[in-house]
Amino acid sequence: KKIAFTAPGPKPWPIIGSLHLLGQHESPFEAFTALSKIYGDVFSITLGSTPCVVVNNFKLIREVLITKGAEFGGRPNFMRFHKLFGGDRNNSLALCDWSSLQKTRRSIARIYCAPKFTSLQYDDVNKVGTEAVEVLLVELRKQPMGQPVQVKPLILAACANMFTQYMCSTSFDYRNVEFQKIVRYFDEIFWEINQGYAVDFLPWLLPFYSGHMRKISDWASVIRKFILARIIDQHRASLDPGVPPKDFTDALLLHLEEDPNMNWQHIIFELEDFLGGHSAVGNLVMVTLTAIVKYPEIAKRIQAEVDSVTAGTRYPNLFDRSAMPFTEATLWETLRTASSPIVPHVATTDTEIDGYTVKKGTMVFVNNYELNVGADYWKNPQEFNPERFISEDGTIVKPSHFIPFSTGKRTCIGQRLVQCFSFIILATLLQHYDISSTDKCEVKPSCMAVPPDCFRLVFTPRQVH
Ligand code: HEM
Questions:
Q1: pLDDT at residue 465 greater than cutoff 80
Q2: How far apart, in whole angstroms, are the C-alpha atoms of residue 192 and residue 223?
Q3: Residues of 19-35 as b/e, b for ≥16 C-beta within 10 angstroms?
Q4: What is the pLDDT of residues 425-436, one digit of tens each?
Q5: Of 354, 376, 353, residue with least CA distance to 363
Q6: 217 alpha carbon to ligand 1 midpoint, in Å?
Q7: Separation of 199 CA from ligand 1 center, angstroms?
Q8: Over 90: is that where the pLDDT of 102 sits?
Q9: What is the pTM assigned to this prediction?
Q10: Cα angle at 358 between 21 and 30, to 5 degrees?
C-alpha cells in the first residue's frame, strides 16, 4: 500500500506558522525561491494556520495548472477578496471558486475579451484603442513639456476609456470628476490586490484592519454605483433582444434574460471585473515606461520601428504589430521582469502533486517568479533584453515556460486586450515623445503595480517622426 507523505518544508511556529520567513526577502516569491533551494521544487509551508504548498518548476506548475487544473480550481478565502465584491468573493470572476456559473461567465467574456486577429472585435479593439490614444495625446499637449508630469492618471484615463468604449460603447471626458474618481478607485484596488497582507492569513488581526477593510468596500461600492448609473441603465433602456448585441454589456444583459442562474448582481460584478482590467493595462504601461527611461537605447529602437512602419505620416495601429517586433518584445520583456504573481489556487479535493499528498483546502502558490527570472530558464535573466523574444527571422517567440498570464482553466481572460492596448499606447507615445524622468522610477520586484501616486515623467516632443 502506498504511504502518503506531505511535501517537506519549514516547521511552523505557533500562531504565525512560517509567515516570518516571507518577510526576509523583498517579495514573498523571492522567499519561495530561496526556500525551494532548501526543501525542493515542491514544499509545504504553513502561513498563519493555513496549509500551503509552493510549486517551483515548470513541470510541477503544469501539473497544478493543466493536468490537475480541475482539482486546483479554487481560490483563497481572504477577507479582502470578500470586501471587494459586495461581501462575497464568488461575485468576482478572478477570485471565485470554480463553478458552472464561472464557466458560463468565462464563455460570454471570451468573445469580447479575447478577440481573434481576424474578427470584427479585433477591428473594434483597434479603432477604440487608436481613438482613445489620440485623445490622450491632446491631453498630454496641455501639460508643461520638458517638465515632470504626474502622467499616471492620464494614462489610466485613456485605458479606462478604451475599456468603457469597447465593452460599453461609452467614454468619458478627462475632466469628469466622477470618472476621475472611479479611475482612481480602480487603481487603488489594483494596488491593493497586488499587496500581500498578514491579515490574509491571520484573521484575528481583522479588528486592527477595520478602517482599511471599510475603505476597500467603499471604493468598490462607489464603482458599482457609477457602472449602474452611467452604463447599465442606458443599455437596459435601449436593449433590443431582436438584434445582435452591440457590445459586451448588451451581451451580458441578453444573457440575463435567457439564463435563470444569472442575476442582476452578476452582471454588475462581471462588468466591474472587466472594466477593472484597464488598471492592469495602465500599470503595465507605467512599468514599461520605467524601462524606457532607464534604457534610452530601447526607446530609440521602438522609435526607429514606429517611424519606419508609419513613415511619419500616420499613427501606429494594431495591424502594424507584426512589423514592430521590438516594440511587442519590449512589452513581453516587461511582463517577464515585472513578474506579476499568479493569484493563488486552492485544492478543491484531496489530491497529489509530484506524488506528495495535498489535502482539500490547501492553498497552492505557483512560483512564476522562478519561471520568469530563474537561471535554468533564461540566459542572463537579470538583463532587460527584449531581443530574447525575437527569433532570427524577426518574429516573436515565447518559450513555453513563459506564462505571464498563467495557463489552464483559470488563465487570464484579458491577455489579448492587454497586448493590444498596451502596444497602441507605447508605440504612439514614443512616436511623439522622448520620455525621461527626474524622479526615481522604481518598481517592486514581483509586482506589476506601481502606487497610485507614483513617479513623474518628463515628455519632450520629438522633432522628427
Ligand atoms: C498586465 C496585465 C495582466 C496580467 C499580467 C494578468 C495576469 C493574470 C494572471 C496571472 C491571472 C491568474 C490566472 C490563474 O490563477 O491561473 C489572471 C486572471 C484573470 N485575469 Fe488577468 N492579467 C492582466 C490583465 C487583465 C485584464 C486587462 C483583464 C480583463 C479584461 C483580466 C482578466 C482576468 C480575469 C477575469 C482573471 C480570472 C480568471 C479566472 O480565475 O477564471 N486580466 N490574470
A1: no
A2: 15
A3: bebbeebebbbbbbbeb
A4: 999 999 999 999
A5: 353
A6: 21
A7: 23
A8: no
A9: 0.95
A10: 25
Integer Cα distance of 208 and 461 in angstroms: 49
Could you report the predicted ipTM of this complex, rounded to two decimals? 0.98
1 pLDDT more than 60? no
Give the span between the Cα atoms of 378 and 458, in whole angstroms: 33
Which stretch, 21-35, 68-82, 128-142, has highest mean pLDDT?
A: 128-142
Cα 114 to middle of ligand 1, angstroms: 12
Q: Which residues pair with 436 in a beta bridge?
A: 458
Distance from C-alpha of 68 to C-alpha of 102, rounded to nearest angstrom: 18
Closest C-alpha to 121, from 246, 239, 275, 232: 246
What one-letter code names the amino acid at 202? L
Q: Give nearest CA residue, ligand 1 atom 7.
A: 405
Q: 415 alpha carbon to ligand 1 midpoint, in Å?
A: 7
CA distance 96 to 249: 21
- Tell the residue nearest (CA) to atom 3 of ligand 1: 280
**450, 362 Cβ separation under 8 angstroms:** no
The residue behind cell 490537475 is 68
- Mean pLDDT, the chain, rounded, equals 93
Cell of 289: 515606461
Give residue-wise pLDDT tens across range 343-365: 899 999 999 999 999 999 999 99
Ligand 1 atom with minimal separation from the 109 CA: 35
Percent of the chain with pLDDT over 70: 99
Most confident of 17-26, 235-244, 328-337: 328-337
Q: Which residues line ligand 1 (CB under 6 A)?
A: 65, 93-94, 106, 113, 273-274, 277, 280-281, 284, 340, 342-343, 345, 404-406, 410-414, 417-418, 448
Grid cell, residue 423, equals 502596444
Which residue has the CA at smallest separation from atom 27 of ligand 1? 277
| Rounded CA separation 276/185 (Å) | 10
